[in-house]
TrEMBL record:
The lineage of its organism: Eukaryota, Fungi, Dikarya, Ascomycota, Pezizomycotina. CDD domains: SET_SMYD. Residues 105-246 form the SET domain. InterPro entries: SET_dom, SET_dom_sf, SET_domain_protein, TPR-like_helical_dom_sf. SUPFAM superfamilies: SET domain (SSF82199). It comes from Penicillium crustosum (Blue mold fungus). This is SET domain-containing protein. SMART domains: SET (SM00317). PROSITE patterns: SET.
């Protein structure tokens, strides 16, 4: 969104990419510039809260982000997801926030054609915005048998207030039979962290339906005990909010898994494509699986790191294409893999840049208070604190050896060690 015509005075639509906003205010400010800066600060504070920091170059303090980072960010927000400006922005500019004042959530629960209940955006939601943060009814333990699990859930259920019990029992059960509580849990639980055997069941979040091209990302915050849902792309008012239930792979694999585990036939925007287009998507999904495997190969990581780094760069492009420019948490993970590759070989300069990109991607889809976001932020500040630092010193560089003054293309060539 442009407040003024000066190209340096632009505030991007996707506000998580907004890193730095500067202006020189003359002592005899008659143009209202001070008021204007205050408005920008207020808009930024609505989105970022305590992350907004002031600096004053006149006092020798420099901004948190270097100008190179800012320029890179500007280039990335020049490609907007959607041309529309969220309707709520106007209210921020006027200094009021109707959502907070009326305490209206960003979503509403509604019947969705062919899917039972679902969550639908009540307002336009910007990419990187927190949609809902919710505590589970309860979390499941790593039960040894189905009978034990049923018993444990019934104990947890009895502890809940009556209306919460009713909400739990109204959730979909894909495994009707003698163990109804476990059936509901198996159908609706979200793992508390990637690959965690512990699952959480939620009053609202458990109603969010699946898409193979989701517009939101779910993550467990182990510090707060809340599950959080962030928008990974611009979501238009009225659009259904979706998260991924699948483990990736081509459409036939995904659809089989979704049918077995959750009892539905996926008709998302990818699965319902024409055969030729679906085939292209399936090919990309296969490549994603293949490259993921190659990058995770520890022998290759130590012996042929250059090849692994090339794979990271290739995967980045495929993810961007397959997830239409908003690969969310996939990107955070990919940059983290590339970070590990550099730090294990002692390359602190590239590791720092890669950790920062991973941090920014994670910030946008899991928030600043997620312990994983904080951990990566620390690595970005001091990459050598990672336990695998310098197992080999093949690519040794100090952390301040990030080149300056390169064009964007040259910088990417340096980062991915092209031509070396
Ligand atoms: Zn699908």
């Amino acid at each position: 969104m442009a407040f003024k015509s000066d190209p340096d005075l632009l505030l991007p639509l996707e506000c998580h990419k907004f890193l730095r906003f500067g202006a020189t205010i003359p002592n005899d400010d008659t143009s209202g510039l001070r008021n204007y800066i205050d408005t920008v600060s207020r808009v930024a504070s609505c989105y970022f809260g305590s992350r907004v920091r002031d600096w004053d170059e006149g006092e020798g303090v420099s901004g948190y982000y270097a100008l190179d980072d800012v320029k890179r960010s500007i280039r990335s927000y020049e490609q907007l997801d959607e041309p529309e400006v969220p309707t709520t922005i106007a209210q921020f500019v006027l200094g009021t926030d109707p959502i907070r004042e009326l305490n209206l959530p960003l979503y509403e629960m509604k019947p969705v054609l062919g899917k039972g209940q679902g969550l639908v955006a009540r307002f336009n939601i910007a990419k990187g915005q927190l949609i809902i943060s919710e505590k589970p009814f309860f979390t499941t333990s790593d039960a040894t048998s189905a009978a034990m699990m049923e018993k444990q859930i019934s104990i947890e259920l009895r502890k809940l207030p009556k209306d919460a019990q009713r909400q739990f029992l109204s959730l979909h059960n894909n495994f009707p039979g003698k163990k109804p509580f476990s059936g509901i849990v198996r159908t609706n639980a979200l793992p508390c962290g990637p690959d965690s055997p512990i699952g959480g069941i939620y009053p609202t979040i458990s109603r969010i339906n699946h898409s193979c091209l989701p517009n939101a990302h779910n993550s467990w915050n182990s510090a707060s005990g809340y599950e959080n849902i962030y928008a990974v792309r611009f979501i238009k008012a009225g659009e259904e909010i979706t998260i991924p239930y699948d483990h990736g792979g081509p459409s036939d694999e995904r659809r089989r898994h979704l049918k077995n585990a959750f009892g539905f036939d996926c008709d998302c925007s990818i699965c319902s494509r024409q055969p030729a287009e679906l085939k292209q998507s399936d090919e990309r999904r296969r490549q994603i699986q293949h490259l993921d495997g190659e990058i995770g190969n520890p022998h290759r990581l130590m012996q042929r790191p250059g090849d692994s780094l090339k794979d990271c760069q290739a995967l980045l492009q495929i993810l961007e294409e397959e997830f239409e420019g908003s690969p969310g948490a996939h990107i955070a993970r990919l940059y983290y893999d590339a970070f590990q590759l550099c730090i294990v070989h002692g390359d602190q300069a590239r590791a720092r840049v890669l950790a920062e990109r991973s941090y920014r991607a994670r910030l946008a889809c899991e928030g600043e208070n997620n312990p994983e976001t904080k951990r990566i932020q620390k690595l970005m500040e001091d990459p050598k604190t990672h336990p695998i630092f310098g197992m080999s010193m093949k690519w040794k560089t100090p952390k301040n050896q990030v080149p300056r003054g390169l064009s964007s293309d040259e910088f990417e060539k340096w980062l991915w060690r092209q031509g070396r």
